[in-house]
Amino acid sequence: MWKIVRIDDADYGCEERMPGEPLMVLVTIEREDGITMQFEVTEDWIELQKLEEGDEWPEEIEEEDPDTMHAAKQSEWMEGYYRALQELEENV
Length: 92
Prior knowledge:
The protein has two helices and three strands, in the order E-E-E-H-H. The chain has 92 residues and is α+β, with helices and mostly antiparallel strands. The chain folds into two domains: 1-60; 62-92. It has a three-stranded antiparallel β-sheet. Strand 2 (24-31) and strand 3 form a beta hairpin.
């Protein structure tokens, strides 16, 4: 079982929200063994579900195995690094 430990406003950074884009919240949930997970959902969905901090998360959580998660993070980092190199080459 996952329990909601925090619901925070999402960080839109300097770009802010696009017109018509729904308000998002950052939800932090925690399992009995202390494992936590964060993700964004629409504020409207949270309100429709009447969810608050301390409530049980109503959805099934599909967890990836640690090796898959590590590989995905490495791949994401490499893609960012490659894009940064391309930008540097374009500016030379």
